[in-house]
């Protein structure tokens, strides 16, 4: 089934000029980048986006990291795009990420792990709507 998922190239990666290399991994995996924009998240945007983690000890650090430098927000489209992108990203902790995954190749740590990808189709829809209108997504 063709799906859309939401992706963020995080500040640790944009800071190191890795946007192009990460996009190459995404495209080589058969996912199409059907919307993309560079943006500096506000503290409110980052807090809302990660609200599900509000009680976790790393929440403050996560919000700080996500707002430190620009990010690239994207919509990816393809067969089973949600699960496929999670596979391409690799495990949250780069030490546990499989060879060839984005996080294995580029992540610095469990916090600064280079990319975000939606964890369900339902959340993908909610996250996409936080950053893109339908007319900005060109499949
Ligand atoms: P995911 O990004 O692989 O879906 P989640 O568990 O949803 O992982 O966590 C969201 C983000 O919070 C992670 O990508 C990472 O940046 C950060 N994070 C998760 N666990 C830790 C931790 O133990 N220490 C610091 N940051 C963490």
Automatic annotation (TrEMBL):
> Could you tell me one molecular function GO term of this UniProt entry?
nucleoside diphosphate kinase activity
Compartments reported by the entry: Cytoplasm
Q: Which cofactor does it need?
A: Mg(2+)
Which top-level group of life is the source organism from? Bacteria
Q: Active-site residues?
A: 116
Which UniProt keywords are present, listed alphabetically?
ATP-binding, Cytoplasm, Kinase, Magnesium, Metal-binding, Nucleotide metabolism, Nucleotide-binding, Phosphoprotein, Transferase
Q: Name one Pfam family in it.
A: NDK
EC category name? transferase
| Residues annotated to bind ATP | 10, 58, 86, 92, 103, 113
Q: What is its EC number?
A: 2.7.4.6
Under catalytic activity, the entry for this protein gives:
a 2'-deoxyribonucleoside 5'-diphosphate + ATP = a 2'-deoxyribonucleoside 5'-triphosphate + ADP; a ribonucleoside 5'-diphosphate + ATP = a ribonucleoside 5'-triphosphate + ADP
HAMAP family found in the cross-reference section: NDP_kinase (MF_00451)
Provide the function of this protein.
Major role in the synthesis of nucleoside triphosphates other than ATP. The ATP gamma phosphate is transferred to the NDP beta phosphate via a ping-pong mechanism, using a phosphorylated active-site intermediate.
Give the family, as the similarity comment puts it.
Answer: Belongs to the NDK family.
The entry describes its oligomerization and partners as: Homotetramer.
Protein name stated in the entry? Nucleoside diphosphate kinase
């Amino acid at each position: 089934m063709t799906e859309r998922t939401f992706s963020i190239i995080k500040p640790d990666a944009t800071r190191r000029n890795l946007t192009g290399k990460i996009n190459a991994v995404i495209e080589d995996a058969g996912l199409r980048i059907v919307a993309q924009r560079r943006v500096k998240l506000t503290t409110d945007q980052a807090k809302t986006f990660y609200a599900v983690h509000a009680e976790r000890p790393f929440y403050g650090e996560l919000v700080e990291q996500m707002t430190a430098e620009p990010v690239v927000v994207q919509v990816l489209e393809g067969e089973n795009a949600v699960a496929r992108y999670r596979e391409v990203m690799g495990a949250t902790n780069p030490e546990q990420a499989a060879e060839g995954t984005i996080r294995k190749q580029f992540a610095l740590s469990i916090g600064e792990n280079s990319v975000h990808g939606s964890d369900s189709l339902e959340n993908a829809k909610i996250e996409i709507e936080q950053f893109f209108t339908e007319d900005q997504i060109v499949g």
